[in-house]
Amino acid sequence: MPSSSRSAKDFFAPLAVGAPAPVREVPARPSRAIHFFDPSNEKMAAKIPQMVGTVDVLLGNLEDAVKADNKLAAREGLVRIGRDTDGLGGPGGTTQLWTRINSLDSPWALDDLTTLVPAIGHRLDVIMVPKVQGAEDIHYVDRLLAQLEARAGLERPILVHAILETARGVANVEEICGASPRMQGLSLGPADLAADRRMKTTRVGGGHPGYLVRQDPPTSADGAADVGADRTTYQQDLWHYTIARMVDACAMHGIYPYYGPFGDIADVVACEDQFRNAFLLGCVGTWSLHPKQIAIANKVFSPSVEDIRHARRVVAAMGDGTGAVMLDGKMEDDASLKQCLVLVDLAEELAAIDPELKKQYDAIEEG
Ligand SMILES: CC(C)(COP(=O)(O)OP(=O)(O)OC[C@H]1O[C@@H](n2cnc3c(N)ncnc32)[C@H](O)[C@@H]1OP(=O)(O)O)[C@@H](O)C(=O)NCCC(=O)NCCSC(=O)C[C@](C)(O)C(=O)O
Ligand SMILES: [Mg+2]
């Protein structure tokens, strides 16, 4: 039962006469990297046509990181890119086209939607809404999009993705995910969320050396603890709780969780670690802020050849999928098979759009 004020029978009804029918299931399109660009930045915008086919999603960002003076230029730049770039967005696009509109309380959000939907709505796959606080924000966008889609004669609904970047948004995460059949997924907004929660960090995503646990102190023969001794510390993940909540809320509603931005562009190693934590916990992708983060995201969010080799062996060994077998000294059963099928299915989806990956998965020997 969707956590919405609409009854179950109305949940999938279009919200405006003439609007396209809402989707019953969110398509599982690969979206390992959602690559952000500022459409008002001419150097960045010039690179977009050649990036089509090299990244799963290109996202024209209109919100934070675009100067207030450039908001109009960014919106117009995105319209031009959406109109003129071959292979970008829409059902036949090789790379999806997303946008992040300005926040709903800003002076720009309404014009973002009323401009983009008629101009490039047929190309826009997903609209990311920042700073979503609760289901009411999704309901507002949902109805407005239906009206604009009806007027533009669009044949397919534009999906909506919410960024969790306020404490209220996190507290309402389940109702946000279930607020509309348009909901495609969630991303973490670690910088705004940290500020809203009054966390004491100053970074965009990633860990903090002060957030740690320390090994117990050694004790002397008389049992006294030597708290001054050298002890190993282990840095902890500040984002574990939020990502885990997002993953559960998304899985419950059949939509997709994503990590978000990693602002230390130079630290490609920690970036990969943070992305991998999210992948292992259940996220399907992340953001890329700089071209060099695309390769990191594509690598991390594609199952490794070793994982697929193992997963296929378990599937083969399990025969009809029931019971328990021993493989390499480990017990495999109905539930470990299900985990392996998650990986095998993901590999198939990715191989369908990534020829290099397909080659690697095809080369895996049986047995
Ligand atoms: C980090 C920056 C300033 C470094 O920009 P740079 O120019 O210093 O980097 P560079 O290494 O010198 O750039 C090399 C080349 O790549 C180009 N380039 C560089 N970046 C891109 C790009 N993204 N897409 C396409 N091209 C790009 C750049 O123009 C340059 O071209 P050139 O060789 O012709 O001179 C720059 O990469 C950038 O502005 N990235 C996007 C930042 C962004 O979108 N931030 C908002 C998302 S994070 C967020 O909002 C938080 C959140 C969720 O809301 C919350 O946690 O609360
Ligand atoms: Mg933000």
TrEMBL record:
Q: Which cofactor does it need?
A: Mg(2+)
Q: What is the name of the protein in this document? A: CoA ester lyase
- Binding, Mg(2+): E165, D192
State the superkingdom: Bacteria
Q: Which GO terms describe its biological process?
A: oxaloacetate metabolic process
- Write out the ranges of the annotated region (Disordered): 206-225
What positions does the domain HpcH/HpaI aldolase/citrate lyase occupy?
35-203
